[in-house]
Amino acid sequence: MTPVSAVRPYLTLLVARCRQETQYRAAALFGMATQLFWGLVRIAIFTAFLKAGANRSSMSLPQTVTYIWLVQGMIRVMPWSVDADIRNLVREGTVVYELLRPIDLYASWYMRAFARHAIPTVMRAIPLFAAAVLLFHMQMPRTVTDGALFVVAVVLALLLAAAMSTLISISLLFTLSGDGIQRILPAIANFASGLLIPLSFLPTTLRHILRVLPFCDLIDTPARLYIGQLGALEAVAAFAQTVIWTAALALLGRFLVLRASKRMVVHGG
Amino acid sequence: MTSQIEVSNLAKSFRVAKRATGVMGAFGSLLKREYATRAALRDVSFTLNAGELVGYIGPNGAGKSTTVKILSGILVPDSGTVQALGMCPWKQRTQYVQRIGVVFGQRTQMWWDLPVIDSFCLLRDIYSVPEAQFRRRCGELTDQMNLGAFLNTPVRQLSLGERMRCDLAAALLHSPGVLFLDEPTIGLDAVSKLALRQLVKSLNVEHGVTVILTTHDMDDIEALCSRVIVIGDGEILSDGPLTELRHSIARERWLTIELEGNQLFSPPTNTTIMRREGNQVWLRYDPVITPTPLLISAIAATNNVRDLLVQEPPIEEIIAHIYQNGQP
Predict the structure, then answer these.
(1) Do residues B214 and B307 both lie within one domain?
(2) CB-CB: which of A99, A102, A269 is closest to B98?
């Protein structure tokens, strides 16, 4: 088999899933409205906080405002939820057909997860950033390099998010419901990614710990690149960290798929 | 003929969590879970030759689906071996499934939101079917299964019969040499059933596809299968041609007698009356003990007979007999 034909099934699945995601245009529009509203609320809170003279972080008020808009636009990068389609496959036992296809289960679920994060993110982020820049004091990147690094960081964040998301899907093969993960994970991820509070505002030790964990690369790293807080060397280090985490989670996922397919039982006719 | 699938001493058991009933039981199972082991397959062996069309039947929970799942590589047995198409299904799964087709009657492999043809195109890429071959195959299947009218309809809007035909076509797009059908006619109307049977038959005869069919519909078996494997409680109860199965149990014959008027009728020796309704009498007898010609002439001599009909018991009766007694 040539390399091209070996990759084709996965590309097909990716494209199919992307097309499915683009169907949800109304959801993207209303999602964006919600994010705009919450963005304004959060900006009001942070403005009050910073104007009271409590700012000991490295971020100025305009940078903080921009950071908040970045968070609002990138909210769908977050691997919050269980893929409902995969959960149904597992609960109804139709997952057998996934195993009856001559393709790698991990890779095909990964493609699906990537599309599930990438398309909504693009559909929401671009109009939201446009609105925020025009109306609500979001800054443009200072240099073209900052902008380019931000784009690279977002792509890497999506690859990482897809690895996390796939891991959640695989956990369904063991737990069947995924309810537990669906409750715990957002709480941890929202905090550790900088989504609730920019990590720069956190105490030094905690910040150092969180910046080693994978969650910071979902939101905090791209956002800091955008507002120009990272030098070239730091940027490379951050990218390396993202790639290493992605690879590690993907390996773990593959290992779990292998284990699951050995012990999986699909009951009933 | 070469053997294509060799199954030897397959065994598989499942662990089922036992829950005590009631409130105390619920608390108890938080602390200590008890598991019961249920053997789905005990010791199953058989060999299939290329081009065979085999019926695999048994009561609910006998292990039919478990066998199909193991043979299609998605379930790993506790012990035993399977050699199919020169491979071990669960060890070389991706390579193996490229060459088999599977239809589970109760599930669909089509993409719910997509038009049928889009699902087919996805499968084309997943199975790496060359474009020219795909177009020819898709055309053939569309004709044979009459799919033309709803190729562009989303799967969620199809009726069960239409969906089932699409599912069968979907399983055949990559021209598999072995086809597993797990209750493919479940819930179908008479027309859809006939269409499905015809297609399976022609696949088997014209393309030499080996077919394993599990079903509860004995008409499927009578219409299609030359060989029947009966499984009960995880063990093979009988394996052979349908006619042999019939004869092994039931040398029994049924004789329906239509009498002139509502006259008295006493059964000849070695026969029993199964039922009487008005002037119709159903008799059961063993043709070896009571040869049919003798029985008929005896009845005709002593009664005023309008009509006679000799039948073999329906296949359902025979199968039910095996299920209940555990052996033919």
Answers:
(1) no
(2) A102
Any domain includes B22: no
Q: Are residues B171 and B77 in the same domain?
A: yes
The beta-carbon neighbor of A20 closest among B74, B102, B113 is B113
The residue among B219, B247, B275 that closes a domain is B247
SS3 call for B55:
strand
Q: What is the pLDDT of residues B75-131, one digit of tens each?
A: 888 889 999 888 888 888 888 999 999 998 888 888 888 889 988 998 998 898 999
Residues B166 and B235 in one domain: yes
Residues of A in contact with B108 (CB under 8 A): 94
- Taking the Cβ of residue A5 and every Cβ of chain B, the question of whether any pair is shorter than 8 Å is answered with yes
Cβ pair A266:B74 closer than 8 A: yes
The pTM of the full predicted model, rounded to 2 decimals, is 0.79
What CATH number does residue B288 fall under?
3.30.70
Give yes or no: residues B109 and B197 share one domain.
Answer: yes
Question: How many domains does chain B divide into?
Answer: 2
Q: How high is the ipTM of this complex? A: 0.74
Contact B107 A94 (CB under 8 A): yes
Q: What tens digit of pLDDT does each residue of A89-146 get?
A: 887 777 888 888 888 889 989 998 999 999 989 988 998 999 998 998 888 888 898 8
**Scanning every residue of chain A, which has its alpha carbon at the shortest distance from the alpha carbon of B12?**
A265
Do residues A114 and A13 touch, judged by C-beta distance below 8 A?
A: no
Minimum-distance CB partner of B126 among A12, A263, A269:
A12
pLDDT beyond 50 at A269 = no
Among chain A residues, the shortest Cα distance to B89 is held by: A100
Tell me: the pLDDT tens digits for B37-60? 888 888 889 999 988 999 998 888
Question: Where in the sequence is the domain holding B274, given as residue range(s)?
Answer: 251-311
Query: Do residues B194 and B76 share a domain?
Result: yes
Task: Please list, in sequence order, all residues whose beta carbon lies within 8 angstroms of the beta carbon of residue A113, skipping any fewer than 6 positions away.
Answer: A79, A83, A161, A162, A163, A165, A166, A169
Residue with tokens 């029947």: B228
One-letter amino acid of A176:
L
Using alpha carbons, list the distances in angstroms from residue B258 to B62, B268, B279, B290, B295: 41, 16, 6, 20, 15
Q: Do B223 and B255 reside in the same domain of the chain?
A: no
Amino acid at A175: T
